[in-house]
């Protein structure tokens, strides 16, 4: 059996940037074990398998796998799938905005594909999340030690470290500038001896409210005990927690906020994510995530019958 796949660079306009996501637009006939094996073989952050569903020409069931196993939700997968479906002609972009229904394991995600001349220009989807925010955080000395930074790099003027979970807990840590985000190096020995493991957070979302890129308002980076020292993994799944973190501060005014966050750097796989959040200071927060993608490659997977 032959299955066509595409590789999309997501949350970028240019190839060789963003996060590499593989998409199989026609996955009928594949079982969970085979999908997991394909994802492991491709060895990309996420591999997306699409199936017709939802009784609509623009509806798809999607399964998402990393090399380590199945993923319940993926924001990068939504953007990649929309661009690939348009590229291979599986959906028609006849209107300026085309709705998509993508069913992941967490439920149905509504997405909108903006287009010009039948080519996608932006994919946006929304999530309604409820966050648990804990103001307990390790001491500055501990933070600096396991992040490989100086205490002076930490920012307490406008933000403070907090634990935020929208289903997956992150220790969110603010630093002063882009340079501090980039030079941080996770120290496992210092982490294990600190109070951080008691917070249940296994990933640190490090951010700075500054960027050398005029398109971005924040710079984000993920670090942690399960992330390699030289890895710079995608941050899309952490954006709802980041928005909830921003809304947990009293100085964040009520209303709709529109801003952009970046990951990576100009010399290697930079991503740009467009965000909107409706801060009503209520239990649930609506977050809209938007981004672009570039198709990098396509190929054939030839499985034995």
TrEMBL record:
Superkingdom of origin: Bacteria
Coiled coil (UniProt feature): none
The family this protein is said to belong to: Belongs to the PhzF family.
Alphabetized NCBIfam families for the sequence: PhzF_family
Species for this entry: Methylomonas aurea
Gene3D superfamilies with a match to the protein in the record: Diaminopimelate Epimerase, Chain A, domain 1
Signal peptide: none
Transmembrane feature ranges: none
Protein name listed in UniProt: PhzF family phenazine biosynthesis protein
């Amino acid at each position: 059996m032959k299955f066509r796949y595409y590789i999309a660079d997501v949350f970028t306009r240019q190839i060789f940037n963003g996060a590499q996501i593989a998409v199989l637009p026609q996955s009928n006939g594949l079982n969970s074990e085979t999908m997991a094996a394909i994802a492991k073989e491709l060895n990309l952050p996420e591999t997306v398998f699409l199936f017709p569903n939802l009784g609509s020409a623009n509806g798809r069931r999607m399964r998402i796998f990393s090399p380590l196993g199945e993923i319940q939700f993926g924001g990068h997968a939504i953007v990649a799938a929309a661009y690939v479906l348009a590229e291979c002609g599986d959906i028609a972009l006849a209107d300026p905005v085309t709705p998509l229904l993508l069913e992941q394991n967490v439920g149905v995600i509504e997405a909108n594909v903006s287009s010009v001349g039948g080519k996608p220009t932006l994919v946006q989807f929304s999530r309604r999340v409820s966050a648990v925010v804990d103001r307990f955080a390790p001491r500055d000395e501990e933070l600096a030690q396991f992040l490989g930074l100086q205490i002076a790099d930490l920012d307490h003027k406008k933000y403070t470290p907090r634990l935020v979970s929208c289903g997956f807990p992150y220790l969110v840590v603010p630093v002063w500038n882009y340079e501090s985000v980039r030079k941080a190096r996770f120290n496992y020995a210092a982490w294990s001896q600190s109070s951080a493991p008691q917070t249940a957070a296994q990933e640190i979302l490090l951010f700075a409210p500054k960027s050398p890129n005029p398109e971005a308002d924040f710079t984000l980076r993920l670090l942690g005990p399960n992330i390699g020292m030289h890895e710079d993994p995608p941050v899309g799944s952490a954006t709802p927690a980041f928005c909830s973190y921003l809304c947990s501060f009293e100085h964040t005014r009520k209303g709709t906020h529109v801003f952009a966050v970046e990951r990576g750097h100009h010399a290697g796989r930079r991503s740009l994510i467009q965000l909107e959040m409706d801060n009503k200071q209520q239990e649930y927060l609506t977050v809209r995530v938007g981004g672009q993608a570039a198709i990098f490659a396509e190929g054939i997977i030839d499985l034995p019958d």
